[in-house]
Amino acid sequence: MIFNYQVMTKEGEAQSGTIDAPNVNLAIASLQRRGLVIVDISAEGTGSFLSKHIGGRVKTKDVVIMSRQIATLFEAKVSALAAFRMLAAESDNPILSRVLTEVTDDIKSGTPISQAMGKHPKVFSNFYVHMIEAGEESGKISDNFNYLADYLERTYELISKAKNALIYPIFIIVSFIAVMILMLTFVIPKLTAILQETGQEIPIYTRVVIGLSDLVRHYGIFLFILIAILFIFLHRYMTTVVGRESVSRFKLSVPYIGNLYRKIYLSRIADNLSTMLTSGISMVRALEITAEVVDNDVYKRILTESSISLKSGNLISGIMYKYPEIPNIMVQMMKVGEESGKLGFVLETLARFYRREVDNEIKTLVDLIEPAMIVLLGLMVGVLLTSVLLPIYNLAQGI
Q: How far apart are alpha carbons 14 and 26 in whole angstroms?
């Protein structure tokens, strides 16, 4: 296959030309081995490769598969350079392939694997990089890649279940809004015209529905713009430190939903700590890294403060005892783990426990939401129609 390329030399000179290679990954690798910086590359007769894929992303599933493959290759005594070069050439995801090619080039120049991966934070998280670094230091890097694959699979499964549980309620809510807008825009005005022609006195609840219909029909576009502006301001507020803290606390305070979120975060904390302790990372560093990936500012603050207190020689169970967001059962289990010297095992047990709890919470939530949403949708539609049809029915009875 022929590829057109545009590159820059080390001296800053622009060059362009063509290269024959089996696929784009090998073409990129060939150009980079010449010391050229690739500006653009595309197969002859197609659009730019970079323009097509620069906005893509690497899915968790792709990273899980890659981690398993690297662990297997390392166990088979394949060198790191050969392993990453092989995976870069065979990856179906063009973004991951490009990243692995760059990692391969860095490893070839003598850079440690963890540092080479650390240059791509959008693909390899801080947690991932530190796990690999611990594997390099302990000489168990293949084990750590397997630990990472197991961890990412558990995390992916947990997040997928939570997202899938929200699909049906979101669909019902969107359907409800669409039905309400259609009724207020098209159905209610026609029924209102009939009522106004009769000249009878219109009940207060019917006047409210008619007023709402007029508001949507005449000022709907302004309402939409207002909602969009509020959404933009809310989004900006959520990016601030105070905003993130407020949103994090709100997630934990919502009835029932807050309990689900709390168990998700506790499961993530226990799983992260267990995985890192097993791989040889110190508890202080494990707490610091977990604080960055827990995805909730309340628990991030707790973990950060705990890591600082731990440096003073305190026990982790004693530190977390003062935080009401950490359940007493979790603190007691961690204390048992510290006393028995099996804290990693205890944390793994806690992670499994909270994953089961999350599964049960999600199942119960879905079972409750489905009938509740259907009843709410039917009730609101019924109220709208009754508000307008009842006066018409009374009129017909009086004729």
A: 21
Q: Residue 140 phi/psi, 5° resolution?
A: -120, 50
Residues 245, 296: Cα–Cα separation, whole Å? 8
| The two structure tokens encoding residue 392 | 């018409």
- Give start and end residues of each alpha helix (H) in 57-140: 60-75, 80-90, 94-108, 113-118, 126-138
Concatenating the DSSP letter of every residue in 327-346 gives -HHHHHHHHHHHHHT-HHHH
Tokens 């935080």 sit on residue? 323
| Residues 167/365, Cβ–Cβ less than 8 Å | no
Question: What is the chain's pLDDT, residue by residue, as a tens digit (399 residues)?
Answer: 677 777 766 665 667 777 777 667 677 777 777 777 666 676 654 444 444 444 457 888 888 888 888 888 888 888 888 888 888 888 888 888 899 999 999 888 888 998 999 889 888 888 888 888 888 877 778 888 888 888 888 778 777 777 777 777 788 788 888 888 888 888 788 877 877 777 777 778 888 888 888 888 888 889 889 999 999 998 888 888 888 888 889 988 988 888 888 988 998 899 888 888 887 888 888 898 888 878 889 999 999 999 999 988 888 888 998 899 999 999 999 999 989 888 989 998 998 899 888 888 888 877 787 788 788 878 887 887 787 777 777 766 655
Distance CA 8, CA 17 (A): 12
